[in-house]
Specification:
- The complex is a heterodimer of chains A (about 110) and B (about 110).
- By secondary structure, chain A is mostly beta strands.
- Chain A contains no helices and 11 strands.
- Helix content of chain A is about 0%, strand content about 50%.
- In chain A, the strands form 2 sheets. In chain A, strands 2, 4, 5, 6, 9, 10 and 11 form a 7-stranded mixed sheet that branches. A 4-stranded antiparallel sheet of chain A has the order 1-3-8-7, with no helix packed on it.
- In chain B, strand 6 and strand 7 form a beta hairpin.
- In chain B, about 35% of the residues are buried.
């Protein structure tokens, strides 16, 4: 149980384009979903927290107009990186939690912006 | 301020050499202490949740324990496939569900 999927697993795009990443909880309803990014050999950095039907809460320093988050249902959240630039290249990971604080993580999405 | 600290940063073991990873925490009103395993290029995999001092949980060669100030992840007779980064985390006292992560311990088990 507690499986979270992400799609795509890898994406390469040109500078200036937008990229959408999907995060789905497959076997439970996620009241809260989280988006992280991770640079090589570094710890997870929380970008934002989203609750179903509400606006996402962004961490300090994260541009909300650049990283659009939509939590449309209890099983789906999306992260759209708008007008991506090479510095946005990173490993993006989502997680989901239900009634407990335990977060279950997706497999991650490797974004490369050329 | 809520804080989670892991030690050591890196650990090299020979196959079969048992050891422990440490996670110290200062969190008001602990609502769980989580252990995850992360392999390179993958998302963290949930291992255990501990809620109260004295609690222990086991899974294959791993056993997690909890005291009032720290948690230990004991690895018994490790195998090369146990090589990974182990993360310890806890929800903060702010009740937002956000996790406070330790920096992780990177374990390498040599055959």
């Amino acid at each position: 149980g507690a499986v979270v999927s992400q799609h795509p697993s890898r994406v390469i795009c040109k500078s200036g384009t937008s990229v959408k990443i999907e995060c789905r909880s497959l076997d439970f309803q996620a009241t809260t979903m989280f988006w992280y990014r991770q640079f090589p050999k570094q710890s997870l950095m929380l970008m934002a927290t989203s609750n179903e039907g509400s606006k996402a809460t962004y961490e300090q320093g994260v541009e909300k107009d650049k990283f659009l988050i939509n939590h449309a249902s209890l099983t789906l959240s999306t992260l759209t990186v708008t007008s991506a630039h090479p510095e946005d290249s990173s490993f993006y990971i989502c997680s989901a939690s239900s009634i407990t604080d335990t977060q279950y993580f997706g497999p991650g999405t490797r974004l490369t912006v050329l | 301020e809520d804080q989670v600290t892991q030690s050591p940063e890196a650990l090299r073991l020979q196959e079969g050499e048992s050891s422990s990873l440490n996670c110290s925490y200062t969190v008001s009103g602990l609502r769980g202490l989580f252990w995850y395993r992360q392999d390179p290029g993958k998302g963290p995999e949930f291992l255990f949740t501990l809620y109260s001092a004295g609690e222990e949980k086991e899974k294959e060669r791993l056993k997690a324990t909890l005291t009032k100030k720290e948690s230990f992840l004991h690895i018994t007779a490790p195998k090369p496939e146990d090589s990974a980064t182990y993360l310890c985390a806890s929800p903060g006292s702010s009740n937002t569900g956000k996790l406070i992560f330790g920096q992780g311990t990177t374990l390498q088990v040599k055959p």
